[in-house]
C-alpha cells in the first residue's frame, strides 16, 4: 500500500470518527434535552414541577407526561411532601398546550404514539383532580389546551396580569379536551360554551374573574409567593390557602377593571343556550351587534365538524363526572386524529 493511499484511508477513518463523535454528541444532546424537558424537585415542604421548554412555550410531550405522572403519585404518598407546585420556565408561558408538531408527525409515522399521548395525558389530568395533596398551578403567561389540563383540575390556580387563557381547539379541527367537557360547562352561565366554540382569549385578572384561576397575584410577587409556600412547616390545606389569600388580597392590578365580557354576558347566555350550532349562528345573525358579528366571523372560520362535536361534548359533559368526561374525550380524540 502506497503512502498516498494510506493517507487517504486515514483521512476517511478520521472523517468517519468525527462523524461518529458528532452523532454521539447529538444523541447525548437530544437525551439531555429530553431529560430536562421537565424538572421534578423536592424543595422545602413541596414537590415542584417545572415545565422546562421555554423555547417551545413549555408545550407538553409524551415524555414529559411520563415523567410527571409517576412522580406526582410518589409525592402524593410521601408524608414529607405537603403540597405540589407546577409552573412553567421563562416568562412567556405556563404551557401553551400539547406539542402539536410531535402529534402531527406521529399521525403519519406512529399511530400508537397518538393513542398513548392522549390516554396518558388524560390519566394525568384525572390524577391531578384526585390528588390528595394541595396542588398549586402558577399559570403565568400563555395557558392553553394541555396547559389548562395540568392546571385547572388542581385545587389552586394562580393567575397574574400576564396570564392568557384559551381553548382554541376548534380552529385546528379538534375540540377542547383535557377535561374541557367537564370544567367549561360549569363556568358561570354559558361562558364556557362561548369560550369553547370561539376560542376567545381571557387575559390577566379576567382569568380569575371567569373562574379559571382561584387567585390573582402580581407577577413580580410570584417568586416571593413560591418561597413563602416552600417555607411552610408541615402546612395544612388551610395554611396554604391563607398564604395564597394574603397575596391575592394585596394585589391591586386591574382590581377595579370590569370583566371584559361583563356587558355581553346576558347576550352570551342567551345566544349559547341553543341546542344546535345552527341555532347559535342564527342567534348571532339576528342580534346583528358588532360583538355578535365578531363572534359569528370567528365561528364561520373554524371547523364546522369541530363546532358540532364541541357543543355536544359540553352538553353531555355538564352532567358527567370528570373520569366519565375524560373517557368520552379519549374516544373522541381517536376519532378526530385518525
UniProtKB/TrEMBL annotation:
Pathway entry: Amino-acid degradation; L-valine degradation
Keyword Mitochondrion: yes
Keyword Disulfide bond: no
Signal peptide residue numbers: none
Key words of the record: Branched-chain amino acid catabolism, Hydrolase, Mitochondrion
Subcellular location: Mitochondrion
Family under the similarity heading: Belongs to the enoyl-CoA hydratase/isomerase family.
Protein name: 3-hydroxyisobutyryl-CoA hydrolase
Natural source organism: Moschus moschiferus
Underlying gene: HIBCH
